Automatic annotation (TrEMBL):
<keyword id="KW-1133">Transmembrane helix</keyword>
<protein>
    <recommendedName>
        <fullName>DUF4870 domain-containing protein</fullName>
    </recommendedName>
</protein>
<keyword id="KW-0812">Transmembrane</keyword>
<feature type="transmembrane region" description="Helical">
    <location>
        <begin position="44"/>
        <end position="63"/>
    </location>
</feature>
<feature type="transmembrane region" description="Helical">
    <location>
        <begin position="15"/>
        <end position="32"/>
    </location>
</feature>
<feature type="transmembrane region" description="Helical">
    <location>
        <begin position="69"/>
        <end position="91"/>
    </location>
</feature>
<keyword id="KW-0472">Membrane</keyword>
Length: 114
C-alpha cells in the first residue's frame, strides 16, 4: 500500500500535513483546507493524524479511569511515539504508514480526504 507522489504534490501538501498533526483542531482545519485542492499527500497524513487523535481520545477515556502510572505512562509514551513517527514523515515528505494501525486509518477514513 505504498503510495507514490510527485515532488510538486509533496511540496504543496506538506503544510496541510503538518497542520493536521497540531491537535484535533488543526486536523479539522487541514481537512477543510484540503476540500478545495484535494492534495493526496496531505490527505494521506490527514487520515493518519485524524486516526491518532481519535484513537487517543477513545483510549484516554478508558485509561483515565484506571488511575495508575503503570498504565498511563506507557499509554502516553506510545502515542507520543506514534505522533512523532507520523509528524517526522510529514515534515520530511516521506510516506510513513503507522505500524499496525496506519493501514486501517487509511481505509476507515477514506472518505475524509483525497
Amino acid at each position: 500500500m505504498l503510495k507514490t507522489f510527485n515532488e510538486h504534490e509533496i511540496e504543496t501538501g506538506k503544510t496541510m500535513a503538518i497542520v493536521a498533526h497540531i491537535t484535533i483542531i488543526g486536523c479539522l482545519v487541514a481537512i477543510f483546507m484540503n476540500i478545495e485542492n484535494k492534495n493526496r499527500f496531505s490527505g494521506f497524513y490527514i487520515k493518519q493524524a485524524f486516526g491518532i487523535h481519535v484513537l487517543f481520545y477513545i483510549l484516554a477515556y478508558i485509561v483515565g479511569g484506571m488511575n495508575s502510572w503503570f498504565v498511563t505512562g506507557p499509554f502516553y509514551l506510545i502515542f507520543i511515539m506514534l505522533w512523532l513517527y507520523s509528524f517526522i514523515g510529514a515534515v520530511s515528505g516521506e510516506i510513513k504508514v503507522l505500524p499496525k494501525i496506519g493501514v486501517y486509518f487509511q481505509k476507515w477514513f477514506n472518505k475524509l480526504s483525497a
